[in-house]
Amino acid sequence: MVTVRVPAKVNVQLGVGGLRPDGFHDLANVFFAVALGDLVTARQGEGVTLTCEGPGSDQVPLDDSNLAARAAYALAAHHGIEANVALHIEKAIPVAGGMAGGSADGAAALVACDALWELGTPAEVLHGLAAELGSDVPFALLGGVALGRGRGEILTPLPVEGTFHWVFAVADGGLSTPAVYRECDRLRAEAGTGYTSEELPDPDADPALLAALAAGDPILLADALANDLQAAAVSLRPSLADTLRAGTAAGALAALVSGSGPTTAFLAKDAEAAEGIARALRESGTCRAAHVTYGPVPGAAVRTSA
Ligand code: C5P
Prior knowledge:
The chain is built from ten helices and twelve strands. By secondary structure, the chain is of the alpha+beta class. The model has no long low-confidence stretch (mean pLDDT about 95).
C-alpha cells in the first residue's frame, strides 16, 4: 500500500493569451502549491477501481474518466503492463473549485502507482505522462512555485523565499473550466481588445510578481496578484464579488479568484491574520467553508509505503 500527499494550487498570476487551434489558450501561469491537499492511496487490486471520501466527494466521477484512473492506465500502458490497482482519494481540495484538485489526484496516482508497481519511472517520463493527462497535472508533480508556459505544462521552477499565508473560501457548486475560458474570450470580444482571440500576443510573467516571490514579501505579492479569468468567473457567478469584498473587509492584503474559480483566495499578512480572515468569511455567509493554509509546499510525494 502506498499513500501519496499532493498539494492544491493557486495561480498568483494567470495571464491568458490567444486561443490556439487546439482549443487551449497560451498562458503565463505562475503556479503556487499550498498545503491544502488530497491523499491518494494505491493498493493491489484487479483492474482499476476508485473510491473517494471527503467534502464534495459525491461530485467526483468514480469511472475511467477520473484523472487518477486515467493516470494509472497511462503509466501501465507506458510500461506495457496491466493496470491493476485499487485507488482511494481522501479529498480536501475543493471539487471543481479552480484549485486543480482533479489534476492533483492524477499526479498523485502517477506517483502512487509508480511506487506500488515498483517501476522507478524517470521524472521526465512522469512529467510527459502528466502533461498528456491535463494542463495542470505536471505542476502538481513539481510543487513549489513555477512559471507555466504553453497551455501551462511547460514549467520553470521559480525562486521563492519564506512562507506565505492564505485563506481559501469554498463556494457552493463548481464552475466548468472550459466555460470560464469561453466567457473570458466572450468578454474580451465584447470589450474590444484590438485583436481577435486567436491573435492576442503571448502573456509574460510580471517581473514585480517574481521579485515579490523571491523577496518573500506578502505586501508586494498582494500588489502583483493577477488573474485574467477573474472577470469571467465573476460574470458567471456574480456572488463571488461578495466573497471577495468580505475577505478584503476582514483585512486580507489581496483577494482573487483561484484559477477558473469558484474558490476565492485571500493573501494574509501572517498566520494569525489568516485565522481572522477565515473567521470573518465564515460569519459573512458568502461562502460554504473557509480554509487557512500556507505555501509553497512540495509536489506529489509518497507519505507512507508498506
Ligand atoms: O488541460 P485541462 O484538461 O485541465 O483543460 C481543461 C479545459 O480548460 C480545456 O479543455 C480548455 O477548454 C481550457 N483550457 C484552456 N487553455 C489552457 C488550459 C485549459 O483553454 N491553457
